Amino acid sequence: APRATTRGGGGGGGYLPSQALMSSSLSQGADDLGSGGGGGDPAPHALGRAHTQSSQAHSQSQSSDGDAPDGRPAQRGPQQPEEGEWQREQQREREREQLFADDPERVGELASATLEMDALNKEPLVQLLLRAVDQVRQRGLEARGEGGMPVWMGRLLDTLSSSSATYTTRLLVARLVYDLRNLPLEPLEPAGGEAASPAPGTKRLFADHARRWYKPLARLVLESLHANGCFHYLAHDLLQLMGSWPAEAVDEADGELHALLGHVLEKGMLLCNDKRGPVLAENVRTLKLLLGRWAPRLGAKLPLRRLLILKQLKARSKGDEAREVQWRKAALHLLNALLANHLPLADDEAATTIPGGHWTRLMPPGSPALANAPPAASDAYTPVGPTELLDALLSCVKHARKAVYDPAATVLGQALASLGGSAAADKLPACEENVFKYLSELSMSDYTQAGTSRLLVLLDHLSEGYPRLLELRGRLLAVWARSKLLEVHGDGRANVLRCMTHAAA
Asked: How far is the C-alpha of 253 from the C-alpha of 127, rounded, in Å?
């Protein structure tokens, strides 16, 4: 998957830094990015609690962004707790229990494992099954079935895939999969009575059989996202796990799997927004990780409706500007991830139905997710064209907040570059004209220091992905930027120098 870069380039470009999503206030600092804060939407289910420290550490180690750690774990609840309550909650989040704490001969592969003591892991059955798996492997009793999969793993897979298994049972199996994710492919021999630890680079059992686990896990994640109505911690953990598996495990010929993955990404895009910056950044990083893993493998076979992103780019929130800014920032980062992975900017004009059908058709009978489904699920869909998305991006470039117009300029430059070799190349001249008109009017109407600084930022970020913009109308914008070289200082001068570099490239 492409690595994150602070700045993107043409030809797909790089990822926007998710660190910019960390902040959620609208204070007018040097970069218009204040500190995070505020509460979010209440989580309607026990699964809607915050990502724990262990989950955050796991996701940061596998993030496709390479951003810095978030620091204090975010609280996902109806409101920010008081300081004393916050400290007590953090203490509860840090609680871990040794799996074999009461076993004097802790020499198994899971002896040193720690469990996140959530509602699922506190079930006695879960710890009993973990002990059983460990003992079966350590005593050499692990029988192999079809495809070399251990029999016990096959039983878990059958349960997770069964339409007759209850929702709670399938959640428990998914929790077991995550708890056992680091099991090595072959049982380890304990050395000198000490707990065995797999060496770095050791093949993992579940990763080796990922091809058969992808579909049932994707189905459960989609089901739980609809049932809970939030980007809960278990979905986050399972998606991070799936994103760590080899891309080759995704079956290129399985249309139902492709539809499930598309629906999972779409629902994640709808639920990823959060007023608290660290939570938003973590959710977006997870979706970027999955796009970076699945898009190069599936390409156009990965169905993603651009309408969802278009609505977020045009989001309005009366009386709550912070919420509007967060929606637009999230949409910009997600669209950037699509372009960075060389997916088309717009929908296919022929895509007038939802690929794979409405998500309700992929749910098992009696699923709690169906309680929140519309009464009449239609497969009809109106594809979004490039002009609509480019107009929405231009409206974000015109936004008053730097937290919006800064990344919007980068993504708009990438979007214009992506049109050049596409079937929608005939739309490019009109889009160029709209962008040039706005920039030229800004250069002639706002002579303040703030106006000059804004335009230089826009020119810098736009021309990085689409340097042709500086060549239009006798290089008018390039000449204007060069004329400011001796008038501005600091970041402004750096913007001018980069514009000159882009123009000469």
From this structure: 37
| E-assigned strand segments in 87-196 | 96-98, 114-116
Coil, strand or helix at 96: strand
Residue 213 CA to residue 260 CA, distance in Å, equals: 13
Asked if 67 contacts 17 with a C-beta cutoff of 8 angstroms, the reply is yes
**Burial class for 185, CB neighbours closer than 10 Å (0-12, 13-18, 19+):** middle
> What whole-number distance in Å separates Cα of residue 321 and Cα of residue 324?
5
Largest CA distance in the chain: 80
Exposed e or buried b per residue across 439-465, where buried means at least 16 C-beta atoms within 10 angstroms of its C-beta: bbebbeeeeeeeebbbbbbbbbbbbbb
**pLDDT (tens digit, 9 = 90+) per residue, 402-457?**
999 999 999 999 999 999 877 788 899 999 999 999 999 999 988 889 999 999 99
Other C-beta atoms within 10 Å of 432: how many? 17
In this structure, what token pair is assigned to residue 492? 């402004």
Q: Where does the pLDDT of residue 52 fall: very low under 50, low under 70, confident under 90, or very high at 90 and above?
A: very low
In three-state form (DSSP H/G/I as H, E/B as E, the rest C), the secondary structure along 446-463 is CCCHHHHHHHHHHHHHHH
Q: Which residue has the tokens 């704490």?
A: 101
Q: How far is CA 240 from the centre of its chain?
A: 9
Where does residue 137 rank: exposed (0-12), middle (13-18), buried (19+ CB within 10 A)?
buried
Q: Give the whole-number percent of the chain exceeding pLDDT 70.
A: 76
The pLDDT-based confidence of 372 (bands split at 50, 70, 90) is confident
Cβ 346 vs Cβ 389: under 8 Å: yes
Question: What are the pLDDT digits (tens) for 181-225?
Answer: 989 888 876 554 455 566 667 889 999 999 999 999 999 999 999
Helices and strands counted in the chain (H then E): 18, 2
In the predicted structure, residue 112 carries a pLDDT above the cut 70: no
Count CB neighbours of 50 within 10 A. Answer: 23
Q: Which residue has the tokens 């700045």?
A: 7
